[in-house]
């Protein structure tokens, strides 16, 4: 486990747990993410801003998107002079004229960046002036967001990116929503834009979910509408089609549903196809602004057409989306636990070097699943150890040592419960090095267990010299990456107390990893601005991300360790794993780590996304960033090299990502350099 620890940012709530975070309190079973639902008024709509707000409220919607200008923009700015575009806006030319209702309004802007304008110096200047003029007005109104379309032609994107960069300071309170169709060809363009803009955190996506949803080249939708080869949705137990998964890694602020993406049911009401429903249901828990837009925004176009929706129609669409939201599956225990901590980076705990706080232990103990697993493991182990004993020998209790017992000794309770289930006598010794935890542990011994049944010892397990050896050694010293809270080093130091045929629970553990694409995690780590923030691992409930390939194992630690070498050399590890990138190119931001643990025999615990122990909340995944996001083409490979290195007083990881098929020299843009050399940015104290 990893307990509560210092948050990496002062603005986010502080979490805690087994390499994990403090769970949110009091989220009811029925909790659902809130729904923000709005409609889009198109250019040329004659209604005033106030009329649109009234229409929005009468449909019980929460926001609207509407053009800033009252007239539809002509296709070019040829008829406007440079002087006109430099002068203040005319009151009559504006549709959004005051900050009234601005918090419920997303102004939309028709820009003029296209193949013609970028080749004509005057038109290019005009397109820039026009954008700045409107951004200036939006900045004046302090609108929370602005919506504008991704240029369709890739050659236009560098100029568009530069113009946006230049205009961003004019809208300090706004985020930019880039309207782009959810289509294969959109992603490289979006990726180019945000890369040119330096991964700006102000840039978000407004994804247009058109009538034709993309499908990967080798994918197959079965006759019953289900998909052959689903991928996991990070931070949940759900799956989705591979061609859509990459969008989960993007900062999707809004989901735009054009009216022509809906079908009409027998009663004449708009409904979505099964695939559309699955897609919308996957995104809804991420709380996007759902925007209904009139017919004509097909998946191949990023600009809306010009037919408005009647109020009666809008209400029908709104009702349907509300129905989808109402009927979302119940939030899982894990999701409720992690609510508010999704994508929130935390420094991994150091339970060996630091003394954990009371609140951290409280968090650990809120996960009944882990303790049920330990109880089952102890019971199975006790049965196995005693099945060949004669009745007379059964009278002598099995000696079980719980090392790192914590303040309330929940693992001691597991041992006693397991012994009861196995009908085997036990004697328990609980060892703890945290003096504050001893206070409550002693009290529990006195008031609940009794001194005859449970002995309490204040000691660092590595230096402890008990009089007798034990049958079973129980511990829980695991971090989000398995061995990253120094379970191997602690258990090596205490394995001399185990009889020759004694058993350690856990018996072994194995870290797993997968490349992760997540501009969110990367920008959160970059934002920290601490030296080495991109060479440090973070415990984080990963959600806004795409695992580009299935997880693979690195190495295994088994206990008792077969041989101990001087200077802890036997606990050094190196592994290299190669991942196939599927049918879509990706931008990799590092790798995500998990672990699997064999407690005893068939009793296991796992945080792997593909076989996570149901409802277990004790561990969040771990994120290892790379300094330079790595572009990988479809069908290529990514190699990850990880070292576990030990020194006299510390243990650390070093890592590098490379492209094994090109053998490109690691450098910015190709692959990462070796990170955290010598543990310079992050290490775990022995
Ligand atoms: C992750 S907590 C687990 C607490 C409790 N066993 C549970 O499962 O809820 C690990 C505990 O091991 C203790 N610990 C870590 N290293 C230790 C050492 N070398 N000797 C004794 N206790 C240690 C910590 O103080 C902490 O209480």
UniProtKB/TrEMBL annotation:
GO cellular component terms attached to this protein's record: cytosol; nucleus
Alphabetized InterPro entries for the sequence: Arg_MeTrfase, Arg_MeTrfase_PRMT5, PRMT5, PRMT5_C, PRMT5_TIM, SAM-dependent_MTases_sf
GO molecular function annotations of the record: protein-arginine N-methyltransferase activity
Transmembrane segments: none
Disordered: region residues: 1-32
Coiled-coil portions: none
Domain PRMT5 arginine-N-methyltransferase residue range list: 335-505
Family, similarity comment: Belongs to the class I-like SAM-binding methyltransferase superfamily.
Protein's name in the database: Protein arginine N-methyltransferase
Organism: Catenaria anguillulae PL171
